[in-house]
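Appendix B, record 7
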Amino acid sequence: MARGNITFVVFVCFSSCLVVSAKRPHIVFIVADDLGFNDVGFRNPDMITPNIDKLANEGVIFDSAYVLPVCSPSRSAFMSGIYPFKTGLQHIVIGAAQNVCLPLNLTILPQQLKKVGYATHIIGKWHLGFCNWNCTPTYRGFDSYLGYYNADEDYYKHTIAGFYDLHENETPGWNFNGKYSAYFFAERAQQIITNHNAEQPLFLYLPFQNVHAPIEVPPKYANMYPHVRNWGRQNFCGMVTILDEAIGNITQTLKDKGLYEDTLILLTADNGAELVAYGNNWPLRGGKHTLWEGGTRVTSFMSGYGLQETGITHTGLLHAVDWMPTLIGAAGAEQVPGIDGINQWDSIRLNQPSKRTEFIYNLDDFYIPTQGHAGIRMGDWKLPLGYPGSIDGWYEPMNDTKDTPLTKNIFPNTGDSPARLFNVIEDPRELNDRAADFPDIVQNLTARINEYRKSYVKANYPKHSEKAVDKAKQNGGVWSPGWC
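Structure tokens (predicted):
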């Protein structure tokens, strides 16, 4: 054999060996429900979150990570990489008796990871529809499921709107009745990790119930905040701390199993804090249900495997639709074509500028005054059009007051008017509306929103169905699929 051919063969072999030996990381994707921008210790020293703080400080904190104003839209973006206004899920959330789910023609994150050998598990909140079995987690790429389909269950009774909503795969999880969800969600995650074959990559999706209302927590956690005199805020803080403890227990189990060094952990909130439920987004404006920064700019970070620069804050733009392609990128799996998300893995792991220069906060023409109407971010500029959401203002933590902000329709519901313009780099608190100063920017950003509107899908927000109630009654008082 000629020397040149030998060199070629060696090169091919070496390249092949690199491909074969490339390690796919284990991935833990944590979603903290309604966690505020100011509800973690690394921003607010009053909060007791040592495990979250350690992960964040040893990883990459995202200073400009954005989501949708409420739950179902954000979760649909996490799983599909597509803006909710293109799937009909942009308006409020999926109700318990609504005949709708994340469109079944979409390839979602666990399905793509399974193609490259991942074991996939979900523990916690689904909230992407359940009227048909095909809408539910174990039919959409997850190997196992322990959690609930809806939004704001009782933490102990696991009931919503009069029916039980805790499920283990396809059966009711009656044996968890009376147990606080953060405890057994963490225990199930620990069981999965302990029993997992370390040679197979693991994807663990952990959309926790904490810290969404109702305000419920074992007293010992609330008692860790004796300086907080507001009952609601004190118990809310306890709910954050029990979430932190759960994350710490899961992290320790990864270490005990020998998986921690090979695990990439992503944590994000699904929207800003619910101010009327004692959460806090200080110093940002507004909260959940709004297009203000307090409703859409959230606590988020990555920690663990693959990150080349750590202990830093990444300032580049990131959006909920980016998490699917970014985690796929970290896993070395094939990207899904035609989505809105951008693979930001190299930007994050190498601390390079974000590949994103703009995003849509939301487009929602279904006029009910509970969340914002339309908004865009391009570079430093943010343009909300029309009604921005149901609550406005700036609120410090409610440690010493009995009052929470009142939800109120502050602004007239008049379509795209008025237009507001903020430079959110110079003015992250959105104090100074610059629309009158820069009419050309307002015009350009409005035109860009209108380009996005060409792919707008009308909100799929049907009336509640009595068939769902009948099905729950037939199934022993449990919210169940099979009625659409």
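Remarks on this record: The chain has a mean pLDDT of 93. The chain has twelve helices and 18 strands.
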